[in-house]
Amino acid sequence: MIAMKATILPDAAIEGREDFIRTKGKQKSRLKCDADSIAGCVSQRACVYCGARVVLNPVTDAIHLVHGPIGCASYTWDIRGSLSSGSELYRFSFSTDLKEEDVIFGGEKKLARAIDELVLKYNPKLVFVYATCIVGVIGDDLEAVCKAAVRKHGIEVIPVQSSGFAGNKAAGYRAACDALLRLIGPVNRKETKKSKCINFLGDFNLAGEVWIISNYLRQMGIDVNVAFTGDSSCETLKTAARASLNIVQCAGSMIYLAEKMEEIYNIPYINVSFLGLEDAAESLRKIAGFFGDLKIIRKTELLIEKELIAFGGEVQSYREKLQGKKAAIYVGGGFKAISLVKQFREIGIDVVMIGTQTGRQEEYETINELVDEGTVILDDANPAELEKFMVEKGAHLLVGGVKERPLAYKLGIAFIDHNHDRKHPLSGFVGAVNFAREVYSTVCSPVWKYTTETWDLGR
Amino acid sequence: MDKETENCRNVNENPCNMCMPMGAILPFKGLERSMVIIHGSQGCSTYMRRHIAEHFNEPIDVASSSLNEKGIIYGGEANLKKGLDNLIKLYNPGLIGVLTTCLSETIGEDVERVTLEYLNERGQLGDLALVTVSTPGYGGTHTDGYSRAVQRIIARLAKNTKKHSRINVIVPNLSPADIREIKRIMHLFKIEFTLCPDFSDTLDRPFERPYKKIPEGGTRLTDIAKMSGASATIQMGITVDDSISPGRYLASEFGVPLYNLPVPMGLENTDLFINVLKKLTGDTVPESLEQERGRLLDCMIDSHKYNFQGRSVIFGEPENVYAIVKTCLENGIYPVVVATGSKSGKMTSLLKNELNDYRGEIQFLDEADFSQIREESIRMDANIAIGHSDGRFLTEREGIPLVRHGFPIHDRVGGQRLLSVGYVGTTMFLDRITNTLLENKYKSYRKSMYQKFYKSAENSGSVAAGLR
């Protein structure tokens, strides 16, 4: 690829953005993050509501009712690849579809009637009511409407305080965690503490990933009580306090819940990641180590050995084809970014640019330790910056979501879909092979041969 | 559900429409060197970018004023001005669309005043045009947003100008391939024209280097300025309300004669378009077009018996739905459910006028959601769905195959390349319909005939359990 010809580099540094961009080894000061997006920069971030909806949507038997104008419900209808072993109700998108007169006179009555209507039609155990921008401004009292609905119908009706403007996507994660906390009921901790039963926080069962990891844990002699929130239900979420340990994968969205559960229910937590062979094995060992049971530890080693025999070779074979390629990463949260650096290393690829929408300070510090000198690290980037650094650094591929994909392709760069929409698992040992295969399929595609040649030169 | 709650629904279940600013982004993407900023919270622009990017498979850059709590309390003016500064720095556009949202409208932002003030304050911005459009999400659907934006663009840019012989063409939310086809037909008649908005190049860009942040193409702003002096306007927008109709605006403000036509899809609708071109040019129809018409007729004859088996559910934006229904009627593909997520406005009454001789039952659904569309499709025994990809549950849950058409198409590639207008496009559209009907029939007819006539006779009426 002839990087220099791929683009006209802009000379348009936006005031204030320089604090959010670091080149490892060049600047001493810390990268700025977890701040408001700068107006007009074309940030790739979404809003508070988005953060809340992403986290809660996999709760399978809940009615997800968006209190607001139609757009918010329209853009989030069944766009996630979370799978269910039971109810499919979560794949519907319900909206109070507020109109001008509702905005003027208030939407509380309409919301109450909407809940009545839905309870009558679907007989749900749980309704999440999401606040949108407009609700925060017109001052509808979601709490009161939900409380009245609980009294009337005897089910769980939980408000999610996710007005779009009240912070960024990360604030939405917290709003979702607060909603989940209200569901969790108290249990007799003395009895449950000794159990080999854990909660799996921060996995959304995309393409069955919760099932893959639960199978591993079962083979080790550990049961997953409930996952937050992949393939979860009202009943299973309520029992969360039964677990003796919380394992946290997507820390950006779930560390807050883990901390709260430790505080309230005294459940300890550990961070894990099942992305890539190395992280998957290490995380399983960490969990086994927590219980300190020799039988579990032995079973874990057997499992890892078996899985590495089954999948390690294939990953290695891709490594031979991919060695020396350069990757750029731009994803939602820090956990994914960190795991990806290691996962790319497994297949011989160096990361030359890495950024997230909502990474936290400690995650960026980990990233800084992991990456090579000269790697560009950036928070809340925009297309102009992604373009500039990918081209400057000569990246061969980008990992990102739907919005980033066409940019990569137009630049003639390969692309990995690492978003909630994907249809194949990237988690666990089997996921590591899928990942390597996907990287190979895009980096080594014959199509790039034609993008670097001009037609008049012929083949 | 009783009648009363049905008329005044409290819940929209699986929406069949999007919000106003979303629709308003699209026309701005069809102008030369144009960008958009959405005055609202960060999420609006991101969701819409994602929605549009996934359909067109193109980078969709839309800025946001990123309103936060401070902006809500003290007003969002500073955010909007800073947003404009940064957007200009990053993209150097010739025009910026400034769209409002639920949020900015509710807190009472006067974007028209702010943008005027901005231009005065900043001074040296050359010819930069700022076009504000009021698009509160609660005020209408994406279809309304689209028309409003086109009207505002023309109202802002069109200047009093000398009369000239060019013809204005105003198109609704069609695919880039459709827009290219309309342009091709105009070229066949050797007509000089200004087509607005023209996203045929900008939202379906060829792979090329170097990459440009704002793609080349789009209606030239200088051409829009002269739309006021055109000899006629052809607007494909018979369902558009007069108050937001760009063609009406040009007629009433500048006296440009308006030919308000349906989308040229189907034989009759395309004939209408061609006849207007004939009339405007005084020319005969180019021979190649005659041949295309003949081929379409040939296709219609070849497929008519297969098409006759279609019972269609049609949904989407009113203008497109009208054109599809007309095309289906011409071909004996009975429309049994006709739905739009918008207020249908003139669509339903226009269609009902067309249906005087039609004997079949048609269920019209206004401001519909997909729960209603699904229920009616089952009740009316529909066997083919035509519309955007949000209708996919009709296939997943009810086994009704979906021929994807319109916007958005998220679960298949090539929405931007779907050609459905003109004689050629209609032919291709019909083939997609007919082949879907055929595929669905072949999938099961051996089994179903066996069940119906062999197995049930053998068991004298009782269904053989083993074959279910």
Amount of beta strand of chain B: 5-15%
Quickly count the helices of chain A: 19
Gross CATH architecture of the largest domain in chain A = 3-Layer(aba) Sandwich
The low-confidence parts of chain A are: 1-10
Protein structure class of chain A: alpha/beta
Please report the distance between the alpha carbons of the first and last residues of chain A: 16 Å
CATH-defined superfamily of the largest domain in chain B: Nitrogenase molybdenum iron protein domain
Oligomer: heterodimer
CATH C-level name of the largest domain in chain A: Alpha Beta
Query: Percentage of helical residues of chain A?
Result: 40-55%
Termini separation of chain B comes to 34 Å
* Integer-rounded radius of gyration of chain B: 24 Å
What's the count of strands of chain A? 14
* Integer average pLDDT of chain A: 93
Q: Biggest sheet of chain A, in brief?
A: 6 strands, mixed
Give the rounded overall mean pLDDT of chain B: 94
The general outline of chain A is globular
Give an overview in words:
The complex is a heterodimer of chains A (459) and B (468). Chain A is an alpha/beta fold and 459 residues long. Chain A has three domains: 3-32 and 323-422, 3-Layer(aba) Sandwich (Rossmann fold), CATH 3.40.50.1980; 48-183, Nitrogenase molybdenum iron protein domain (Rossmann fold, 3-Layer(aba) Sandwich), CATH 3.40.50.1980; 189-304, 3-Layer(aba) Sandwich (Rossmann fold), CATH 3.40.50.1980. Chain A contains 19 helices and 14 strands. In chain A, the strands form three sheets. Chain A has a six-stranded mixed β-sheet with strand order 1-12-11-10-13-14, sandwiched between helices. A four-stranded parallel β-sheet of chain A has the order 3-2-4-5, sandwiched between helices. In chain A, strand 13, helix 17 (404-410) and strand 14 form a beta-alpha-beta unit. Chain A is globular. Chain A starts with 20 loop residues before the first strand and ends in an 8-residue tail after the last helix. Chain B contains 18 helices and 14 strands. Chain B is an alpha/beta fold and 468 residues long. In chain B, helix 15 (346-354) links the parallel strand 11 and strand 12 (363-365). Residues 1-7 and 463-468 of chain B have low confidence and may be disordered. Chain B has three domains: 20-157, Rossmann fold; 167-281, Rossmann fold (3-Layer(aba) Sandwich), CATH 3.40.50; 287-448, Rossmann fold (3-Layer(aba) Sandwich). Chain B has a five-stranded parallel β-sheet with strand order 12-11-10-13-14, sandwiched between helices. Chain B has a four-stranded parallel β-sheet with strand order 3-2-4-5, sandwiched between helices. Chain B has helices at residues 3-7, 20-29, 42-56, 69-74, 77-91, 102-106, 111-122, 142-157, 176-188, 221-225, 246-254, 267-281, 287-307, 318-330, 346-354, 370-379, 392-398, 422-458; strands at 12-13, 34-39, 63-64, 95-100, 129-133, 167-170, 193-196, 232-236, 258-261, 311-315, 334-339, 363-365, 384-387, 402-404. Helix content of chain B is 48%, strand content 13%. At the A-B interface, helix 1, helix 2, strand 3, helix 3 and helix 4 of A face strand 1, helix 3, strand 3, helix 4 and helix 5 of B. Strand 3 of chain A pairs antiparallel with strand 1 of chain B.
